[in-house]
Amino acid sequence: MDLKKHRPVAIWLFIGAGMIIIQVLLGGITRLTGSGLSITEWKPILGALPPMNEHDWNVAFEKYKQIAQYKYIHNYFSLHDFKFIYFWEWLHRNWARFMGVVFIVPFVYFIYKGK
């Protein structure tokens, strides 16, 4: 077996394993900060960017105020508090998107190259 031929695949798999560990840690932080439901709409493509101006932040915060987590747990939150929990949920989701790219692009390449 030619180990040099398989080295890029092994590196890719180790990177993937490391990224999964980071994702689990981000998930833990997201849950511990109560951030898990701060993004009220799931937009797989367009949701990659956070609100970009004060108006958009206020719109997102108003949507958050309509869910039970705000009403029963975080009803004292200010916009600043909301931005904090939003960040953790946003980072958790975007890290998962990044993991998908890091997986699929080399996977297709390695399949194409017969590795």
| Count of spatially separate domains | 1
Helical amount: over 70%
| Mean pLDDT level | 92
The percent range for strand residues is under 5%
**Assembly state here?**
single chain
Spans where pLDDT lies below 50 across 5 or more residues: none
Radius of gyration: 19 Å
User: Structural class from helices and strands?
Assistant: mainly alpha
Shape by Cα distribution: elongated
**Major sheet:** none
How many helices in DSSP terms? 4
- What is the number of E strands? 0
Explain how this protein is built.
This protein has one domain. The chain has helices at 3-32, 54-64, 68-72, 79-113. 70% of the residues lie in helices and 0% in strands. The mean pLDDT is 92. Helix 1 (3-32) packs antiparallel against helix 4 (79-113). It has 115 residues and is mostly helical. The radius of gyration is 19 Å and the shape is elongated.
Keywords for this structure?
70% helix; mainly alpha; 115 residues; elongated
Brief description of this entry?
By secondary structure, the protein is mainly α.
List the helices and strands and how they pair.
Elements: H1 3-32, H2 54-64, H3 68-72, H4 79-113
Helix pairs in contact: 1-4
